[in-house]
Amino acid sequence: MAQVAAGGGDRVNETEMKAMDANRYATKKTIAQGMLDIALLTANASQLKYILQVGEQHQFYKLMLILISLSIVLQVAAGILLIIQSLISMHNPKDRRVGFIINHFVDAFIFLSVFCDIMKMNFGLDPAIPHSTDDDVELIKP
Questions:
Q1: Does residue 13 sit within a domain?
Q2: pLDDT tens digit string along 53-83?
Q3: Which of 45, 77, 97, 114 is the 20 to 30 Å CA partner of 107?
């Protein structure tokens, strides 16, 4: 560590700043991405629970059920493919080709999962919107 003459504190010199540890960065990035994937899967599970509790009363029950289920299946499939991809050695040209193909499938599954999530958000899962049931009492009658 280089000493700062005027301030007397420690300072990282420019060559140390340029030599960023790529492995540490990649590890942090992978962990953050994994946490986001888990958060999305948890949100989908929560939405599936909600839509199953509301049942046929929800205006788009079948569509929401299909979109949420499809999103969960695509996320799990992408996760399984990522595990398989991590086991492949990228040093062998034949294995590298298989790894690239798996990577394209993972990208497609993630894209389709995000598309399903965007579509289901447009059709609404807002629990603040009251759903009418046969037991509701109408307070104001025309």
A1: no
A2: 888 887 888 888 999 999 999 999 998 998 8
A3: 45
For 19: left if phi > 0, alpha if psi spans -120 to 50, otherwise beta; the answer is beta
- Token pair for 85: 């991809």
Residue 68's region, left for phi above 0, alpha for psi from -120 to 50, else beta, is alpha
For residue 87, give the amino acid letter: L
The residue range of the domain holding 26 is 18-123
HSE value, Cβ hemisphere, 13 Å, CA-based, for 122? 8
**Is pLDDT above 60 for 87?**
yes
pLDDT in tens, 90-113: 788 888 888 889 999 999 999 999
Residues 6+ apart with CB under 8 A from 131: 54, 57, 58
